[in-house]
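S.,

Sequence below, as promised.
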Amino acid sequence: MAEIKVKYGREKVEVKVPDSNLIKVLESKAVTSQLEEEDIIKEALKNPIGSKRLKEMVKKGEKVCIVVSDITRAWQRMSVYLPYIVEELEEAGVQEEDIIFISATGSHRKQTPEEHRVLLGDKLAERFKVIDHVSTNEEDLEYVGTTSFGTPVHINKLALACDHIVLTGSIIYHFLAGWGGGRKSILPGISGYKTIMTNHALSLSPEVGGGTKKTVKSGSVENNPVHLDMMEAAAFVKPTFMFNALMGSNGKIRAAVAGDYIEAFQMGCGMVDEYDAAPIDELADIVVGSACGYPKDINLYQTSKTFFNVKETVKKGGTIIIMSQCSEGFGNEEMEDIMINYDDNAKREASLREEYSIAKHIGYIMCEAASIYNMILVSDMDPEILKKCNIKVVKTVDEALEIAYQLSGKDAKVYVMPNGANTLPKLK
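The prediction came back faster than expected:
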């Protein structure tokens, strides 16, 4: 009997699977770098990919905009790497008053001064302020062109007024864009609301009832219109430089890429695949995936990252078991609305097409999957509230596995994913 310890909320619980049933425990590669975070950052900045060093591309008297992620991405440890980027600029003679920080909030809310301090860290926060991008303030936007996909691109005026735009962030798998990071600092980061929604709506099939396009998924950029549209939008802006961190399962920076926003991003995506892709030879009947515990399993919205990964391992008609405490419920009102206030997926899709949002799309995809797979959530959520979605809620993983074996048979083949939010299975 295999006994695999996984995180659930603030605790660890055991997932017990008979050896004859278990195909494999799927995990990301362990962090192997012996370098400290600061050394990783310095090495990336000293050895840019496809460009000169940042300090060789700027000069005294020029204005530089550093685009940073918002508080929902605080796990990127911006406060650790931003001081080294500022140091590069200052070594080139750029004055403090000529450096501005714009937070790539996309369509997210504005932030508090305390949250700005978290982004920059105490020392930088004493010297600089963070300007929140507000996608709905049309007077703060400038039209720069329309992509071949028909997306009108409106970008933050303050950023465009600078001589240089430096992108920062982290490269991870993303269910719409294939990968987060890179060009996403521009779109959705500092784009107008209409630009963002037009781009994200490209993820839907042209025909009603077609749901999400098959090429729009984690780890996919080829023929992915969301990604390709973002790249065209970024090309209008022509960022000077990019720095993106790659995070380890221990929550620290395990690698970083810097340089040209296209070449460095591509290399970073390859590195994420090397670290976090888990090759599989076959699809299973059952998968058990942990959302990695608190705070990643604080709500269902955050749990979606785990869902998009674990579903890649299972046969149609198989069972997906997700372990996520969801102590704060759905975590998003739009997601909750589309999941519980509609009777079927056709109505959910119609609502999504009428007024698109990422949160609604996540809710729709989860409901869509529940019509293809048996979906079981090990959670503190109320079982009644998800019945309309065809998602069964239970209290323990033992109970979930008992149901799964009844559905798929006692000889059902099983994968276990202890870090479901971070690991992307890829069928060979």
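The mean pLDDT is 92.

Coffee later?
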